[in-house]
From TrEMBL:
Domain of life, source organism: Bacteria
Designated name of the protein: sucrose-phosphate synthase
Family: Belongs to the glycosyltransferase 1 family.
Organism from which the protein derives: Methylomonas albis
InterPro entries named in the record: Glyco_trans_1 (IPR001296), Glyco_trans_4-like_N (IPR028098), HAD-like_sf (IPR036412), HAD_sf (IPR023214), SPP-like_dom (IPR006380), SPS (IPR044161), Sucrose_P_synth_Pase-like_dom (IPR012821), SucroseP_synth_GlycoTrfase_dom (IPR012822)
Length: 712
């Protein structure tokens, strides 16, 4: 039996952060971020909610308050069904931004979502992230809660990077435009921490996930998405002419000819310019069929983003070059409700649906077209291989071979019997292989083994008495942050003594407990209320130095120190630190940058050996490896919840790589000036992280003034 809530039914949280997501009139094709994924997650949420085993589904996305988009996206909650809803969480600026600009705001999204989860009656049973940005958030939430994480990639950074390089783009340009290294790092981290990876096709596993260091096919499952057969169905003799069909008359000399239909957003990767060129170079194809390209909605091409503007401009230039007026339609507008009618219009005209994308992770439009009775011609790269393989309703082509595209289209259009066979195969097999009912049944079956062995952290841990009167906290790292200037330290200590009644004081350090206690005594630093030691692996309440056993039990998940030592033992430039610097959950090395492999290579090795760990390089030469669920930032959030102190009222200060997740997110982050803070340079553009001009304790005091901390 499944292990879940008191009702005996499941609470599932789906996380899909970017794009414009709402329950009706999805603006598919509006931009590169509002496409197949947004439709997928909405349909998945609705389909899961119908299952008897499911109590509740929350689809979590980003809240957007922007006059350029609908007010719908500013609503905190939107009902999808009686037991399903869209939940919108604040993160970063209120306005709508593209997914590549979201990375600096994901820590804040994770903190806000965690706060929302704590307000719910109970923990959900599973987290399911969609795309790399949600994977980044899902990993952090899974570490902080102990909940199992499922992930669906939708499209993958390594595959995208490979194809962009093949198109001739320089790596520097790819990085600048797509932040591809952050995306790939998030994907690697997600793969190493997720319990289950759901893919749409076998090709996705073998050709795309195979590119990753943490490649574990055994925890990947092919569960194709479904299509709504109540919305997408073949035309009937009684089908009336639609508004869209009438609008095509102004484009086409003979609207009654068979239609070659392409439907996608105007994105270079969708390769619709090549399709138009292939059509323009074939008088034979032009003679027997019209080409209709539905490429999103537009009012003025000049006001669109650079990518869409470039594709649409090129389409118009190609039409003019080949003088295709009267044979090609490029309509400016269509509504989401008209999409099903467009497919039926093409099917009634004995046409074909074509997807010529350079690569297609899955291809929901192919399913919709098949359910409408259209034969398919599609790219041989990605999901269409499985779809056409299962449905036997079309042909695969090299998307860069214009001759092959033309020949595939002609072979179907010129053979009515072949058209009827492919159409019938599609109608029969799309219902057999690609229904949402089949998808959700397979999905829930895969959850069973995952939910039987997970131990969650307590949802409402006891609030310490000391925290009842204190609604603020200062947490600081020690070396090169709190320590390093005795005069500044003395002033900081006096301030802490003065504010002790209203402000909790904590230290988070990579040092062991015994070393920390010795320094506190030597420097006459008042004993903190909380000590987070050994890089977040140990939590102590210092009135009696009581260790938090629940935290130790939580981070022990998948921790295999013997295997880790064996994997790293042969690497040059890594020297184990003395025994007194090691602990049960921390393995520490001296890192010689001139001899040791780069950190990227060490990360690759750890992933390839399927080790789910959290490695940190601090001060340029201290390499510490702890369990994946441990870090200063994760321990700080655990403690903050125990004392019921909002992260927004916690001043978190650091100065090296090990402090990154402590100062990021919703804490009032502080990076003091020192020669190692370049390890935190990726936080320089984050609004809620203050880079102090002064060093050591002086930098902390400067930040207290900057935030006017004690007057919050």
């Amino acid at each position: 039996m499944l292990e879940h809530g008191d009702t005996g039914r499941l609470h599932i949280v789906l996380i899909s952060i970017h794009g414009l997501i709402r329950g009706r009139d999805l603006e598919l094709g509006r931009d590169a971020d509002t496409g197949g994924q947004t439709k997928y997650v909405v349909e998945l949420a609705k389909a899961l909610a119908k299952q008897p085993l499911v109590e509740r589904v929350d689809l979590v996305t980003r809240r957007i308050v922007d006059s350029d988009v609908s007010d719908d996206y500013a609503e905190a909650v939107e009902a999808l069904a009686e037991n399903a809803q869209i939940v919108r969480i604040d993160a970063g600026p209120e306005g709508y931004i593209r997914k590549e600009e979201l990375w600096d705001h994901l820590d804040s999204f994770a903190d806000n979502l965690l706060s929302w989860l704590h307000l719910q009656p109970r923990w959900p049973d599973v987290l399911h992230s969609h795309y790399a940005d949600a994977g980044y958030v899902g990993v952090r939430l899974a570490h902080l809660t102990g909940l199992p994480l499922i992930h669906t990639g939708h499209s993958l950074g390594r595959d995208k990077c490979r194809r962009l390089l093949a198109l001739g783009l320089a790596m520097e340009e790819i990085e600048q435009r797509y932040h591809i290294s952050r995306r790939i790092d998030a994907e690697e981290d997600t793969l190493s921490n997720a319990e289950l990876i759901i893919t749409s096709t076998r090709n996705e596993i073998e050709d795309q996930y195979e590119l990753y260091d943490y490649y574990t096919p055994e925890k990947m499952a092919v569960i194709p998405p479904g299509t709504d057969l109540e919305q997408f169905y073949p035309p009937s003799a009684k089908t009336a002419a639609s508004t869209f069909a009438i609008s095509l008359n102004k484009f086409l000399y003979d609207p009654n000819k068979p239609m070659i239909l392409a439907l996608s957003r105007p994105d270079e990767r969708k390769n619709i310019v090549t399709l138009l060129e292939a059509y323009g170079e074939s008088p034979r194809l032009q003679a027997i069929a019209n080409l209709v390209i539905v490429a999103g909605n537009r009012d003025d091409i000049r006001e669109m983003n650079d990518g869409a503007q470039g594709v649409l401009t090129e389409l118009l230039l190609v039409m003019d070059c080949y003088d295709l007026y009267g044979r090609v339609a490029l309509p400016k507008h269509h509504s989401a409700d008209e999409v099903a009618e467009i497919y039926r219009l093409a099917a009634a005209a004995k046409g074909i649906f074509i997807n010529p994308a350079l690569t297609e992770p899955f291809g929901l439009t192919l399913l919709e077209a098949a359910a409408s009775g259209l034969p398919l011609v599609a790219t041989e790269n990605g999901g269409p291989v499985d779809i056409i393989g299962n449905c036997r309703n079309g042909l695969l082509v090299d998307p860069l071979d214009k001759t092959a595209i033309v020949e595939a289209l002609l072979s179907i259009l010129e053979n009515p019997e072949h058209w009827r066979t492919l159409s019938a195969n599609g109608l029969r097999n799309v219902a057999r292989y690609y229904s949402w009912e089949a998808h959700t049944q397979a999905y829930l079956q895969k959850l069973q083994p995952l939910l039987q062995h997970f131990e969650r952290l307590p949802k409402t841990p006891p609030v310490g008495k000391v925290g009842r009167l204190r609604r603020q906290a200062i947490f600081t790292a020690m070396d090169n942050t709190l320590l390093g200037d005795d005069e500044g330290l003395a002033k900081f200590v006096n301030l802490i003594r003065e504010k002790r009644r209203k402000c909790l004081f904590g230290i988070a350090t990579g040092r062991r407990l015994d070393a920390v206690l010795a320094i506190l005594k030597q420097k006459r630093i008042p004993k903190p209320d909380i000590l987070i030691t050994s890089l977040g692996t140990e939590v102590y309440f210092t009135s009696q130095l009581i260790a938090d056993i629940a935290w130790s039990y939580h981070i022990d998940h998948l921790w295999t120190p013997q295997v880790l030592r064996r994997v790293l033992s042969g690497l040059p430039g890594l020297t184990p630190q003395p025994k007194q610097e090691q602990s049960r959950f921390k393995i520490s090395y001296y890192y010689d940058s001139e001899r040791a492999p780069p950190m990227d290579e060490i990360l690759t090795l750890l992933r390839q050996k399927e080790l789910s760990v959290n490695p940190t390089l601090s001060f340029g030469h201290f390499l510490d490896i702890v369990p994946a669920r441990a870090s200063k930032g994760q321990a700080l959030r655990y403690v903050a919840r125990q004392w019921n102190i909002p992260l927004e009222r916690i001043l978190a200060t650091g100065g090296s790589g090990g402090d990154c997740d402590m100062v990021a997110g919703n804490t009032l982050g502080v990076v003091v000036a020192n020669r190692h803070r370049e390890e935190l340079a990726n936080l320089a553009e984050v609004e809620q992280v203050y880079f102090a001009e002064r060093s050591n304790a002086w930098g902390i005091l400067e930040a207290i003034d900057h935030y006017d901390f004690f007057n919050l």
